[in-house]
């Protein structure tokens, strides 16, 4: 990896392609998402939660077998939404260093991995306009990285509030594909729909005012997409 800070002098003519496929990390059965993505994600994928070394995380289920993404066909996603953690491509965000000890933390800045095969190709998208300023693609990437940055900094508080409200239920998810084959997905958490329905009083009002109630409802509704996973799995097996 050769990650460098983007600037409009050294990278004025740099182009980056949008590459999709197993070689770019798209072939996975679970993918990290953040609360601000729940509205789009819940239309396509089941949203679940898992406890990791970094704390509680939200994930979308994309497949059932290892390295399986049922929403990936060769070099394209079939879903209308792709999680920000994957849309970022070879780009990342890192904080600039403060000028001296005791100063406030630096600003988040966009970096690119120059060793990534999508970087520096002739048929890619330019990062900067010919006469200066960001090209639309770079503005798009900045927006995607903003989702990730805000998620990394704000998601822990969201999940802690959901746990405190008793809305995260530990489960082993059983997904039956057909009469002969099924999958058990252990160590997951999902929104407890009964606990959600039982919310009342100050706790209900507080969750509503903070926007967390809406996030919980969308995550709960997303579990209906398990049926879509089953359908996609059976179609792929039949093909």
Tell me briefly what this model is:
The chain is of the alpha+beta class and 239 residues long.
The biggest beta sheet is recorded as: 3 strands, antiparallel
Give the strand content. 15-25%
Oligomer: single chain
Q: Tell me the number of strands.
A: 12
**Count, helices:** 7
Q: Structural class of the secondary elements? A: alpha+beta
Q: What integer is the average pLDDT? A: 92
Q: Compute the number of structural domains.
A: 1
Keywords:
3-stranded antiparallel β-sheet, 7 helices, 239 residues, alpha+beta
Task: Please characterize this protein's 3D structure.
With 239 residues, the protein is α+β, with helices and mostly antiparallel strands. It has helices spanning 38-41, 84-87, 136-164, 193-197, 201-210, 212-221, 226-238; strands at 3-5, 15-16, 30-33, 47-52, 55-61, 72-73, 76-77, 91-95, 108-113, 125-126, 168-176, 182-191. The protein has one domain (3-238). The longest helix has 29 residues, at 136-164. Helices cover 31% and strands 24% of the residues.
Topology of this structure?
Blueprint (H helix, E strand, L loop, with lengths): L2 E3 L9 E2 L13 E4 L4 H4 L5 E6 L2 E7 L10 E2 L2 E2 L6 H4 L3 E5 L12 E6 L11 E2 L9 H29 L3 E9 L5 E10 L1 H5 L3 H10 L1 H10 L4 H13 L1
Antiparallel strand pairs: 1-9, 2-10, 3-5, 4-5, 6-7, 8-9, 11-12
